[in-house]
Amino acid sequence: MEEKLLQLLNQKEYTKMTPSEIAKALQIKDDDFKLLMKSLNALEDKGIIYITKNGYIHLAKNLKIYIGEIIQIRKYYAICKVSSMDEKTFEVEIPIEELQFAYKNDIVRIQLTHQNKGKVLEIIRHNRWELICEYKNRQWICDDKFFPYEIKIINRNIKVVDGQIALLTIKKYDHFIIHCEIKKILGHRNDPGIDILSEVIKSGVPYEFSDKLLDYCQKIIQNKPLDLDRRVDLTNQLIVTIDGLDAKDLDDAISLKINDHGNYELGVHIADVSYYVSAKNLIDQEAYRRGTSIYLADRVIPMLPHLLSNGICSLNENEIRLTISCVMEIDAEGNVIHYDIFPSYICSKGRLNYQDVNALFAHQPYQYPYSSEMKEMLFLMRNLSSILTKKMLQNGYLDLDIKEAKLIVNENTHQVERIEQRIQGEAEKLIENFMILANETVASHIYYQQLPFIYRVHPAPTLEKLMGLSASLKEINVQLPIKGKKFHVKELQKILESVRKTDKEDIVSNLILRSLNKAIYSVENVGHFGLGSSVYTHFTSPIRRYPDLLVHRYLRQYEFCHQYDVDLDFLVMAAENSSVCERRAIALERE
């Protein structure tokens, strides 16, 4: 039916018809009239046609009518993101007086009035069903000053006082009035951290675990044996963790020695979260929904309950923990010449921190009581890290050195006391290098077996973006040669090196960063441009990233259980969901 309709509507002589006239033109019998109306409504829902109030059917594109989403509201206008039928997206400015009470995230039908301006014809679907509001002068005021509706409360039996902040659930939209219930009193506007909590809730990020899930988690920990029999015992090895001073979810540990062949033997031992979080159990479903842990100024919103993230899965000092180990033999040039990936259990011999390890490397005072054996291993790690950095740069690694701020927050008042620059010392760099190498090794191991997997991919920048970057760099007298369509990452490396430790370094690094694509998760490997890796995944942080948990699960399935049946649809969906959750977390952390 839809195909017949489109053939008629796309005829040159077609202008407008009523449903009855269309039925006559297509010789549709009375019995099939309901099917005709159903097809017309479906085409309107897709944005292909537009049915006027007097019942005439038009091709939407002929009237410049589109379906879009309100993505931003400003003082005088809103921005609507529109997708046309040829799948091209563009943005339309809509004056506030033409919004028809549409709000952010609403799906609307709009009509272009000028080249990039338009008006809302109707609100197709509201997507906002919760609000953060403050009770002030006997009324509830939304924390978004552009919120257009008057708020009416249904459950008026809840006692409130001026200054209280609440989460309201929208029960009904009624033209310029919304009818709401008070779902939860969050606190008072003067309470420490109430502003951050409000932003968390507005973002849609799950921030609390249900009692049911916590009880389930407790039972798993109590009833799940350690299962050491089928694992390699590494408890006698010198294995340590190196993290920030305030880190509690320790999911990676490292070891290093020189083997009998005179090569480095690097062990990267990662918490075996997949042993406790099996596919589609309650914890896994919640972890999928969250996608990642989120680190805010005064709190962490964990992907997993603390019983796991800070407890049984965390590689705490002097405690036996289940791990998956990636042990790599590395030559003097930084090449991995042999590796092994296997289930293991460890007992960390040291909970080291970046600050102390950096002090040790700089021959400055430090707090941790290092043994002589531990010191020897750490300096050996520094040497290997230096070799790996050189190797990575040869492969095309972009060392952008973007300056990041770190907020120091008072634990009691939740107020920001000061802002410091986040510094990457040698200790941070060696952990980064070792984790990258383990991620590459695991990714390569699965990729060359041609098994379904989830990759961390970073497509190369388009020629258009590179031309834009070249023009921007030219304005600050930095040259980026682009000859035809040929471009090599080494050109970017040369530029970065030429401005290193100059007043241009920060701006050049940021310009290059803005020209690059965003890294995402995908079942298709296209390499990682920024790291110079031909194949890459995320294996090293299963406590705080869902893709890493999946990688562990597939490693267990393929390598340890020798099972190869995979739900490809789920894998594709999980990769996309993980990318969406990551973007949501980044947006909230920036907020």
TrEMBL record:
Pfam families listed in its UniProt record: CSD2, RNB
An individual GO BP term: mRNA catabolic process
Signal sequence bounds: none
Top-level taxon in the UniProt lineage: Bacteria
Keywords, comma-separated and alphabetical: Cytoplasm, Exonuclease, Hydrolase, Nuclease, RNA-binding
Molecular function GO labels: exoribonuclease II activity; RNA binding
GO cellular component, one term: cytosol
Domain RNB: 231-561
EC number: 3.1.13.1
Catalytic activity: Exonucleolytic cleavage in the 3'- to 5'-direction to yield nucleoside 5'-phosphates
PANTHER family: DIS3-LIKE EXONUCLEASE 2 (PTHR23355:SF9), RIBONUCLEASE (PTHR23355)
Protein name: exoribonuclease II
Species whose genome carries this gene: Candidatus Caccosoma faecigallinarum
Lineage: Bacteria, Bacillati, Bacillota, Bacillota incertae sedis, Candidatus Caccosoma
